[in-house]
Amino acid sequence: MIPRLIALALVAAPLAACAPAPAPVVAPVAVTAPVVPVTPVTGISGLEERQPDACHAKDYTAALGQPGSVIPSLGITRKYRVVEYRGIEPQEYDSLRIVFRLDQSGNIYNIDCG
After folding, report:
1. Distance CA 100, CA 62 (A)
2. CA-based end-to-end distance of the chain
3. Is the distance from CB of 59 to CB of 112 less than 8 angstroms?
4. What pLDDT is attached to residue 84?
5. Is beta strand 98-102 parallel, antiparallel or unpaired with respect to 80-83?
6. CA 103 to CA 111: how far, in whole Å?
7. Which of 96, 16, 32, 104 is nearest to 68 (CA)?
8. 53, 76, 82, 87: which sits with the fewest CB atoms below 10 Å from its CB?
9. Phi and psi at residue 44, in whole multiples of 5°?
């Protein structure tokens, strides 16, 4: 059995040398864009210019600990949002909107802007 394997190897070795060479791999040429210096941007509002209590949330701190059902009776004249316990809150930010956050029992535990 071993002499047959040796004979087979001796016959196959020259045939392997006749196989065509693999095509060379050409690496793609990387084209880089010129680096443009970043200029500072002015006039952007939002989180960069966040002002503390822009929505006057402190005016409603007396409602802390009360049920969320009292919110409509507070006489709020600006935009507000009520976020229930584990509720989904949209991510658009408005520094002038009052946000009432309710706890597990439905009571107001936090009031902030957003």
Report:
1. 12
2. 84
3. no
4. 92
5. parallel
6. 12
7. 104
8. 87
9. -90, 130
Residue 78 near residue 63, CB atoms below 8 Å? no
| 18, 43, 66 from 49: Cα distances, Å | 73, 10, 32
Instruction: Kindly provide the b/e burial profile for residues 76-89, where b requires at least 16 CB atoms within 10 angstroms of the residue's own CB.
Output: beeebeebeeeeee
Query: Can you tell me which residue has the tokens 């970043």?
Result: 38
Model confidence over 37-83: pLDDT tens digits?
A: 766 656 555 555 556 788 988 999 999 999 999 999 999 999 999 99
d(CA 23, CA 11): 26
Buried b or exposed e, range 92-106, using 16+ CB within 10 angstroms: eeebebbbbbbeeee
Whether the pTM exceeds 0.70: the reply is no
- Tokens for 95, please give them: 């520094």
Quickly count: other Cβ atoms within 10 Å of residue 70's Cβ: 14
